[in-house]
TrEMBL record:
Highest taxon listed in the record's lineage: Bacteria
Organism listed in the record: Pannonibacter tanglangensis
Entry protein name: Carboxymuconolactone decarboxylase family protein
Occurrences of domain Carboxymuconolactone decarboxylase-like (ranges): 25-107
Highest classification ranks of the organism: Bacteria, Pseudomonadati, Pseudomonadota, Alphaproteobacteria, Hyphomicrobiales
Pfam families on file: CMD (PF02627)
Matches recorded under InterPro entries: AhpD-like (IPR029032), AhpD_core (IPR004675), CMD-like (IPR003779)
Gene Ontology molecular function: peroxiredoxin activity
Length: 119
C-alpha cells in the first residue's frame, strides 16, 4: 500500500484503533502502557527509540508503524538526516523491500516534520 496523505491516514487509523480499543479494552490498556514504558527516556532518549521503532516499521512493512513513528520522531526533534540514516540501517537489514518502505517512511516523516522539503 502506498499512502499519499499521511495526515489523513493517521486520522483514519486513529478512528479504526478507537473502535478496536473499545472491543479489547484490557489489551489496549496494556499495549498503551507498554508503549509509554518502551518509548520513555532512559538509557536511550525518546527520539532514538522512535527512530528504532521507525526502522522496525520499515523492515516489518507496516504503514501504520511508519506513520505513527515518523510523526513521533518529528515530535521528538529528529532531523531528516537522522531519519535517512535510520532508513539506511533498515535497508541494510531488510534489503529491497526495506528500500521501498524506507521511501514511504521518508515521505511520512516529511509530512510531519516542520521544516521538511515538499514534493
Amino acid at each position: 500500500m502506498s499512502v499519499s496523505d499521511w495526515q489523513s491516514f493517521i486520522a483514519e487509523t486513529d478512528s479504526r484503533m478507537a473502535r478496536l480499543r473499545t472491543g479489547i479494552p484490557g489489551v489496549a490498556k496494556g499495549f498503551a502502557e507498554t508503549a509509554r514504558a518502551a518509548i520513555g527516556a532512559g538509557a536511550l532518549d525518546s527520539k532514538t527509540k522512535e527512530l528504532i521503532a521507525l526502522a522496525i516499521g520499515i523492515t516489518a512493512r507496516c504503514d501504520g508503524c511508519l506513520a505513527y513513528h515518523a510523526k513521533a520522531a518529528a515530535k521528538y526533534g529528529a532531523s531528516r538526516e537522522e531519519v535517512l540514516e535510520t532508513i539506511a540501517v533498515a535497508v541494510y537489514m531488510g534489503g529491497g523491500p526495506s528500500m521501498i518502505y524506507g521511501a514511504e517512511a521518508l515521505a511520512a516523516f516529511d509530512a510531519f516534520a516542520p521544516s521538511a522539503p515538499t514534493g
